[in-house]
Write a structure and sequence with these properties.
Elements: H1 6-13, H2 17-38, H3 43-50, H4 54-57, H5 59-82, H6 84-103, H7 108-136, H8 142-170, H9 181-194, H10 209-232, H11 237-259, H12 273-302, H13 308-332, H14 338-356, H15 365-392, H16 399-439, H17 445-460, H18 465-502, H19 504-520, H20 535-539
Helix pairs in contact: 2-7, 2-8, 2-9, 5-6, 5-7, 5-10, 5-16, 6-7, 6-9, 8-13, 10-11, 10-16, 12-13, 12-15, 12-16, 12-18, 12-19, 13-15, 14-15, 14-18, 14-19, 15-16, 16-18, 17-18
Length: about 550
């Protein structure tokens, strides 16, 4: 195999190579981010196509995020063996195969398997792209490269739901999987030309397979328990067994990483209070961002009757605002303490969901769009500042491990956020349904009036008298369920806001840790002027 290192490619393409490989990396990442966000507008259609509930449908998002999280830990090991080019092309191929499998899936299990393939590919690709750009750009220009890459990654979620809605309205939900295929094909051609490659090493590096196995088992068992808990019963033997195995595997992963010679995740950096606080905020950030990105399209389609396209258009202004806020937040963070921006962003994010907690079928399009824009305004000031604050808290020799850990924790929060929110939504739907059903009796005047009115309407269209009451009761049941579902979504929005406020606790701990570090640092003492230095020079 011919080795085409960064140096060889620079000799071939000159200084323009930096931007050629940046466009290559951005094209690959955008294709994957598009798939991650566009699938959410297809959830109601997939539920109808396969006759499944929310607990099963949410795996389309959860499986992607969970395998993306584990894939990040495989990335550097695979690159060290096969090189950037081979891994980049392999992950794009795997992602494309997953898209085809998902689009042609005969059952929901095939859809979930396709999302596992795509999530694994995306998880391996993300660190690869970052490491490649760090290698081709000098330190003083890496910020510009990250900005270009970040703009593409932020822009993709803005248009992803809209493109997904267009595909569903014009064709079907299956075409949502095919949206990213053209970009994947372009990225593969560019990757074959501009991604660096290397010869396989003589000796394969050590990989912590035991720790990786513990992590996979923990995620699979815990997320499955959260997804099936409402249906199977939270105290059932099946759910208790899953939770027990998941907890034991999670403890095994932590112990393994503490004592392994080549750990997947350097847990010692979490002993730093500022970094630990930033990681906790990152977990909540991931849960809030990705959880709300899943819940909002489902709400407007199932409660307000939006089409997939209309729900995608609803999210577009918020995505575009986020693309504008990211660079602005970077500039503001240079002049303001990070904990102030993080605290302000979390408060705005929480306030938006408290407002959303009053949304119902009558909430207007632009009112709800404004609420979603407020959520992205808050998150836009949290994310860039959070990453910088986390990396400032670790020693220079731990920056790389810190960056990987923060990204890992944020994606982990996203996976658990979607599962927890869906589990809570299902539980509250059941709670409100039972509460409303208990009030539907013969003595309940409004219900009896509704049955009488609906019965007369069915009679006017020619329905036999024997079936009028039965159809009216069925309609009443639908009204009760719709109202219960609306209240459950409102409860879910309120919980997201409360969780965001809980993140103020680690934000406060982060600010206190930074103040302690500044107070512990020795004060700068002015050197006294010597006789060889004139007083004016000393003053200068």
């Amino acid at each position: 195999m011919t080795s085409e290192t960064v140096e060889v490619l620079f000799e071939r393409y000159g200084p323009a190579y930096r931007w050629l490989v940046t466009v290559t990396a951005m094209t690959g990442m955008v294709s994957m981010v598009l798939s991650m966000t566009s699938i959410n507008v297809a959830v109601p259609d997939v539920m109808g196509a396969f006759g499944i509930g929310q607990d099963k449908a949410q795996w389309m998002s959860t499986a992607y995020l969970a395998t993306m999280t584990t894939g990040m830990l495989l990335s550097s090991w695979l690159i060290s063996i096969l090189g950037e080019r081979v891994i980049f092309l392999a992950t794009l191929s795997l992602f494309s195969i997953g898209a085809v499998v998902g689009g042609l899936a005969p059952t929901i299990d095939f859809v979930i398997f396709a999302r596992v393939m795509q999530g694994l590919a995306a998880g391996i690709t993300q660190p690869l792209v970052m490491a490649t750009l760090f290698n081709v750009f000098p330190p003083e220009r890496r910020g510009s490269a990250m900005g270009v890459l970040g703009l593409g990654i932020v822009f993709a979620p803005a248009i992803g739901p809209t493109l997904g809605g267009i595909a569903i309205d014009l064709f079907s939900w299956r075409y949502v999987f095919f949206i990213s295929l053209p970009l994947c094909a372009v990225a593969m051609v560019l990757g074959a030309l501009f991604m660096p490659s290397r010869r396989p090493p003589d000796r394969i590096p050590v990989f912590d397979w035991a720790g990786f196995g513990f992590l996979c088992v923990a995620l699979m068992c815990l997320l499955t328990a959260l997804a099936d808990g409402q249906r199977e019963g939270w105290s059932s033997d099946y759910i208790v067994l899953l939770l027990t195995i998941g907890a034991v595997a999670a403890a095994g992963f932590i112990l393994r990483e503490l004592f392994a010679k080549a750990p997947l995740l350097d847990l010692t950096i979490f002993a730093n209070p500022a970094f630990a606080s930033a990681a906790m905020i990152g977990f909540i950030f991931g849960a809030g961002l990705l959880g709300s990105t899943y819940v909002i399209p489902v709400f407007v389609q199932t409660i307000q009757g939006y089409t997939p396209l209309r729900s995608g258009l609803l999210l577009m202004p918020a995505g575009l605002l986020l693309a504008f806020i990211f660079p602005l937040a970077g500039r503001v963070s240079d002049t303001m303490p990070s904990h102030i921006l993080i605290t302000g962003g979390l408060i705005v994010f929480a306030a938006a969901f408290f407002l959303m907690g009053a949304a119902d079928v009558n909430t207007g399009f632009w009112t709800f769009a404004f609420f979603t824009m407020l959520t992205r305004l808050g998150l836009g000031f949290v994310n860039p500042v959070l990453n910088a604050s986390a990396l400032k808290a670790v020693p220079p020799d731990k920056v790389r491990q810190g960056a990987g850990a923060v990204t890992f924790i944020r994606q982990l929060g996203g996976a658990f956020g979607v599962s927890l929110l869906v589990a809570f939504l299902e539980q509250r739907t059941h709670f409100h349904s039972e509460a409303f059903t208990a009030t539907q009796s013969v003595g309940h005047g409004p219900s009896m009036d509704l049955i009488a009115i609906v019965g007369r309407m069915f009679g006017e269209i020619g329905l036999p008298a024997a079936e009028q009451d039965q159809m009216a009761l069925s309609y009443l049941g639908q009204v009760v369920y719709a109202q219960a579902r609306t209240l459950a979504f409102q409860d879910t929005f309120m919980v997201i806001g409360i969780v965001a406020l809980l993140a103020l606790i680690p934000a406060w701990a982060m600010s206190r840790s930074h103040r302690n570090e500044r107070s512990a640092s020795p004060p700068r003492v002015a050197m006294p002027a010597t006789s060889a230095v004139r007083p004016r020079q000393a003053a200068e």
